[in-house]
Amino acid sequence: MTGRMPILRRRIRGLTPPGSPGQCLLQVVPMTTIADITHFLSELAPLTLAESWDNVGLLIGDTARPVDRILTCLTVTPDVVAEAVALRVDLIVSHHPMLFKPIQRLVASDPQGSMLLSLIGAGIALYSPHTAFDSASAGINQQLAERFGLLGVHPLRIKPNPVTSGSPLLEGASGAGRYGDLPQPCTLDELCESTKQQLNIASLQRVGSPAATIRRLGIACGAAAEFIPDALAAGCDALLTGEARFHDCLRARDSGLALILPGHYATERPAVETLADILQSHFADLTVSASVQEHDPVEIV
Ligand SMILES: [Zn+2]
Q1: CA dihedral (218, 220, 225, 228) positive or negative
Q2: Residue-range definition of the domain harbouring residue 160
Q3: Does residue 145 sit in the same domain as residue 263?
Q4: 236 in a domain, yes or no?
Q5: pTM score of the predicted model
Q6: What is the arithmetic mean of pLDDT over 68-73?
Q7: Facing residues of 58 across strands?
Q8: Could you tell me if residue 10 is inside a domain?
């Protein structure tokens, strides 16, 4: 208990009852607050799973404020801010955080300052789960592992899940990255084609021989070539991560580990849409949607 009085609102639950002319049937029900949403999100993606360098949780907002509309996105950009203001949303759930570095002035002439001023001016709160959502038992990497039908899925780096509420959302192992065996061994070339279909993209980058046999696949969304040693230790034939630097590509190739690089956006954006569905199904009275204005800043030309 917080000691705070619950925010109440009136909702019309039915038509005028027969025999009661002019008397509406009103029912006072508790209103969903930012605190309700952050509590749910912190169970879905416990913040203790976040990396130590990360900046996760409620970054802007008042937990006591009511919520009617939520927008999810991968990253807060000027397009997303404009969309959120136009839709009059109360809360943005952005996978990537803002405010990574301390700021000393908040001015509109700075791109980040302009977005922050717009959000605060419009009364829009911001929550970012980031690496907690990457690693959660129903998080991005687990979702990717399920898209590929991996068998015997385990985290590449195990972290205990501190929440044991019995929710089906929280079943399974938590930790950074995932690995597992493909339902059928295939060539790297075939797995790349399958990846394009699964992530709905036209092209990707690849490191390794197209004819190499892939039995065990490692997965680490975003920019996560740091998991190359973990994938090798887990016996993976390939690691799927969003993007990797040139020297990491050389390191993987020289170690005999294939890389599948569909792009940072392609590995993480689908989970933002899934997150909107999860929130909508849990908070049926609210309106939840994924941003339709954000898009991958990297174009293939
Ligand atoms: Zn990312």
Answers
A1: negative
A2: 133-267
A3: yes
A4: yes
A5: 0.86
A6: 98
A7: 127
A8: no
